[in-house]
Design a protein that fits this description.
Elements: H1 5-12, H2 31-36, H3 41-53, E1 68-70, H4 71-74, H5 88-105, H6 113-122, E2 128-131, H7 144-151, E3 159-166, H8 171-180, E4 184-188, E5 196-199, E6 202-205, E7 215-223, E8 240-244, E9 254-258, E10 266-272, E11 275-279, E12 290-291, E13 297-316, E14 321-329, E15 335-343, E16 347-368, E17 372-373, E18 379-380, E19 384-387, E20 395-399, E21 408-411, H9 417-421, E22 432-437
Parallel strand pairs: 6-9
Antiparallel strand pairs: 1-7, 2-19, 3-10, 3-16, 4-7, 4-10, 5-6, 7-8, 8-9, 11-22, 12-17, 13-16, 13-20, 13-22, 14-15, 14-16, 18-19, 20-21
């Protein structure tokens, strides 16, 4: 099982989360300037300074078609916005979602990062991520999984319907996601200026530090042949991720991150406007919490809402696992629908029903092959609280019989549930969402 890299980092120090603010003194180069090679006065000065120490380098590189892709080449209206606060993580998430929408419908739909900030942090709520008193949410920073956990419950007319957690060492998988799903948000180490450079018209970054990150950028393309000599810290091979970096711009700019630089995570977001409402009890799956009752584990959420059930959402804490979706009456006795599915990646999934179902009072149950995700307990971070609220009658686990036949349903708020499940934490609600059609 792969743990979320940012969760393990946060357990050591929340100060490592992404959220560096844009500096008014930072050099910048616009998208047009990057393409044409015309640098601003500030960047020209820095490039000149760089060239005095590397006078033999000729910056005449022009990419070819082989091993090259850039979403901005086809999505010409893509707007690379500069951050003004510690919200690089939301700029990266917004760019991932915007490019995903473009891949689906062929047009640009802007998503405001500060609006996402309001949804994640500021809206009145009793569970989820809550900024502590006297902390400014704009400068608090955050991480991509917060976006998944919050926006998968729906926002405006959209729903985040999947988040793919990618292996940072799997270069081809990241490329495939960029080409097919859209931009990929990544964590990089961007705090020391001696790792960054202006090499001709290209803003570049390479580093060897592999145990921390302080900034989020978004991979919008790649160039396998980008010269290794263009990086201030020497790179072992050619090639770079073409990224949108919100804190290096007055209007946004490309940022070439060497293939050699260790990424701290990579996640691809997908959004849709298919659904009218997301029914959900969980605040998220913040620390890969899951429960097991045997070879397979069945959990269920009971909902009281009329509509047409079109899809079911859940998390997968493993690379892949098989599941079975069942829809029951609210008393968990009458089976109304059944469908098998495969959770093919680590992250959040939405599974469309083969046949949408009219429901009112109903329950959605999922049988997991490897483990059933639950929200887990409250977490006290440095500046932010992760809070959960569970009520009786919402979430259940089925304790099947030794012969594999269905057993009794047990409410996850029952006293003694930890001992019954042989776990060392309070499980909270099941991570099962019911998505209603428009």
């Amino acid at each position: 099982m792969k743990k979320y890299l940012w969760t393990s980092l946060l357990s050591a120090s929340l100060m490592a989360l992404s959220g560096c603010s844009s500096s008014s003194g930072s050099s910048s180069v616009s998208t047009l300037e990057t393409v044409t090679g015309e640098t601003s006065e500030a960047s020209s000065a820095e490039a000149s300074a760089e060239s005095t120490t590397a006078e033999t380098v000729v910056y005449d590189y022009v990419h070819g078609k082989d091993g090259y892709y850039n979403i901005a080449d086809e999505m010409t209206e893509f707007e690379m916005m500069p951050q003004q606060y510690g919200d690089c993580w939301l700029h990266a998430a917004a760019a991932s979602m915007e490019t995903n929408i473009f891949k689906k419908i062929g047009s640009y739909t802007p998503i405001d990062p500060l609006h996402l900030l309001d949804i994640v942090y500021i809206n009145d709520k009793d569970e989820g991520f809550i900024v502590k008193e006297n902390i400014d949410p704009k400068d608090n920073g955050g991480w991509q999984w917060m976006v998944t956990e919050t926006l998968s419950r729906g926002f405006d007319d959209l729903t985040l319907d999947s988040s793919v957690i990618l292996d940072t060492a799997d270069r081809e998988a990241i490329k495939e996601n960029i080409r097919t799903r859209g931009a990929v948000a990544i964590g990089v180490y961007d705090v020391t200026s001696d790792k960054k450079g202006w090499f001709g018209p290209y803003r570049t970054l390479n580093y060897t530090i592999d145990d921390m990150f302080d900034h989020d950028v978004t991979i919008i393309g790649y160039d396998d042949h980008f010269p290794k000599e263009y990086f201030k810290e020497p790179a072992a091979e050619d090639g770079a991720w073409i990224t949108y970096n919100s804190n290096e711009c007055s209007g946004g700019n490309y940022f070439y991150v060497s293939y050699c630089a260790p990424l701290q995570y990579a996640i691809s977001h997908s959004v849709t406007d298919k659904y009218s409402e997301v029914l959900s009890y969980d605040a998220g799956n913040e620390q890969d919490r899951y429960i097991r009752t045997g070879d397979k584990t069945t959990t269920a959420n009971v909902f009281h809402k009329a509509g047409k059930l079109a899809a079911v959402g859940t998390y997968n804490d493993f690379d892949t696992q098989n599941i079975t979706i069942e829809v029951y009456s609210a008393d968990l006795r009458e089976l109304l629908y059944k469908q098998d599915a495969v959770l093919g990646h680590h992250g959040y999934h939405t599974i469309e029903l083969d046949a949408p179902l009219e429901v009112s009072d109903f329950a959605v149950a999922i049988t997991y092959e490897k483990g059933a995700p639950v929200e887990g307990e409250d977490i006290d971070y440095v500046n932010t609280d992760y809070k959960t609220v569970s009520e009786s009658g919402q979430s259940f686990v089925r304790t099947d019989n030794p012969d594999g036949t269905a057993g009794e349903w047990q409410d996850l708020t029952d006293s003694g549930i930890r001992e019954a499940l042989n776990i060392d934490f309070e499980p909270g609600n099941c991570c099962i969402k019911a998505l209603l059609a428009k």
